[in-house]
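Operator note (shift B, R.M.): manual run for Glycosyl transferase family 2 requested after the automated queue skipped it. Running by hand, logging everything below so the morning shift can see what happened. Input copied straight from the record, untouched. If output looks odd, do not overwrite the archive copy; leave it for review.
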Amino acid sequence: MQPLLSIVIATKNREKYCISAIESICALAHTDLQIAIADNSASTMLRDFVASCNDSRINYAYDPSPITSIDNFNKAMELATGKYLCMIGDDDTILPVIFEIIRWMESEEIDSVSSSTHINYVWPNPALKDCTTGRLEIPSYSGGVKEINCQQALQDLLRNGIVNYQIYGLPRIYHGIVRRSLMTEIREKTGHYFGGLSPDIYSTISLSIVARNHFVLDYPFTIAGACPASTSVSSLQGTHSGELKDAAHFVNRKEPYAWETNVPYFYSVETIWAESGLKATKEMDRTDLYELFDMYDLIPFVILGNMRYLGKLPWPKVKSLAGLSYQRSAHLYKENGKNSVFHRARILAVLTASGLRLALKVLKRKMGSKGQAGSNTQAGIYNLSEAIDAVNQKNFCTLNLPSRLQSQLS
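Run finished. Output pasted below as returned.
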């Protein structure tokens, strides 16, 4: 019998956190649930734990051979047989309300749903200030529901350099819910579920192309974790920027990777997102979207993004990263047929404008956060089950899931 929901997890060498994720999900006691796990760890710790669970809802595969992270995500997707899919990290979990949302999606024939804001859980980490005992961050929610015009939002995203793609409210399997048939459609078109270097942004753009309808809820249904070994924490600690050869995305890749020539050849959150997003448009045969991409909206984020490491890395290192990112951005004129002088002048112009906007944004944030810091933050949370318990004790607003027919008539 096909499960209603498959939770998709690709994991490697983070057994402790993945075990906590499995325990927290299995504790929900839903029979129409499946957990699809592709394990690429060096040890058999997780395999032994799954065997001890003796839970038929877990569809688990262990492969310790050297494969890329993208390959492991594709393996996890192959294991998922549910009608609806939600992909999470191995240090994340889901909330019970997800089943109410999926039943609504099923009755209203909805392809895709995402949440506007996540609940964030930082695992206990002695290297991070204020996170030594774990930290749970719960934003405010309204319970509202909004339908998104995916095609318009996708065009806006490309025109803006594929920067901060989460704010566009597009479909996503990562901490979102999608019909499995959409992912099958993507695989039939491209030969795989996930491509590029980032499965999140690749699937977001691919899903935006194939989804017939999509809604954003201002209500949480997952918890996004950040364990000490996560990319989120790596970014905070300044190890998520530099030469591309140092990026974990290329580990165990057997064939050379064809980097998109209108993205700076530099390792950062922004470049990985932009490059993988462009790959998705090409592999989905949407050259019209590819041509909308504006490198000059991306470049200031690539260069100024290094400023987030101020106070976390020595100044010479931050300066070196900023210089390297500028150099790689300045050399894009060669591959893209741009005039060298014009190209560098435009970079300086967008950098100046973006720097001023960033300074103003930081100032407004500091002024607006007075007296509010920590109002929705809870410390002393040591695992995902405790995080779920803490969230369940929170008095959320009512989730309003309207009939699509009623909204169309009104």
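Quick read of the result: The radius of gyration is 21 Å. Confidence is low (pLDDT under 50) at residues 369-375, 406-410.
Leaving this for review. - R.M.
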